Amino acid sequence: MMARGVNKVILIGNLGRDPEVRYTAGGAAVANLAIATTDSWKDKQTGEKKESTEWHRVVLFGRLGEIAGEYLKKGRSVYIEGRLQTRKYEKEGQTHYSTEIVGSDMQMLGGGEGRGEGGGGWNKQSDDEGGAWGGDDSTERPRAAPSEARKPAVAAKPADDFGGDFDDDIPF
Q1: With a threshold of 0.90, does the pTM exceed it?
Q2: By the 8 A CB rule, do 64 and 103 touch?
Q3: Contact (Cβ atoms closer than 8 angstroms) between residue 15 and residue 31
Q4: Which stretch of DSSP H or E encloses residue 69?
Q5: Nearest to 62 by CA among 14, 108, 114, 24
Q6: At residue 86, does pLDDT exceed 50?
Q7: 15 touches 72 (CB < 8 A)
Q8: Span 98-116, pLDDT tens digits
Q9: pLDDT class for 123, splitting at 50, 70, 90?
Q10: Does the pLDDT at position 147 exceed 70?
Q11: What is each CA distance from 103 to 12, 51, 107, 124, in whole angstroms?
C-alpha cells in the first residue's frame, strides 16, 4: 500500500502585473497571475543586505479567477494557496513543459489601493457552495446572499489570547 503524497503551495507575494483574464468556450473564467516573492538576507562576509526575487505563475479558475481579475492590480499583496501542476505542450514541433500553481484559495492582503482597508478572502470550497466572501465588511467587495449554509472563507479577527504585548523582531 502506497502513502498518498502532498502537493500544496502557499505564497505570499506581490502581483507583477494586472491579472490576465480569459474565458473558456463554456464561459468559465481563467485568470493568469505573475506573483513575486522576495527573500532577503545579510551576507555573512560583507554584512551587505542581499535580495533574491522568485517569480511564480498562478492560474485561478471560475469565480475565483473573475474576482482576481476584478479586484487584483499590479503591486497588490496577495496570499495564494494551491497545488503545483506541470503541463506538456507542443510549439513549433518542440515539446515544452510549464509548471504553474493552480490556486484554490486567495486572500487579498494589505490596504486596497491606498484606502487602508483590510483584505478579504475567497476560496474554491466557498465558490463550489455558491460563493461566500470573507474579510471585513467593506461594501466594495462582493457579498453572497445571506445563508446559514454558507461559511465565510476567513474567520473574523481572532481574540488576543496571549495576554500581553510582544516586543520581538518577527518580520510579519
Answers
A1: no
A2: yes
A3: no
A4: helix 62-71
A5: 24
A6: yes
A7: yes
A8: 999 999 999 999 865 543 3
A9: low
A10: no
A11: 12, 26, 11, 8
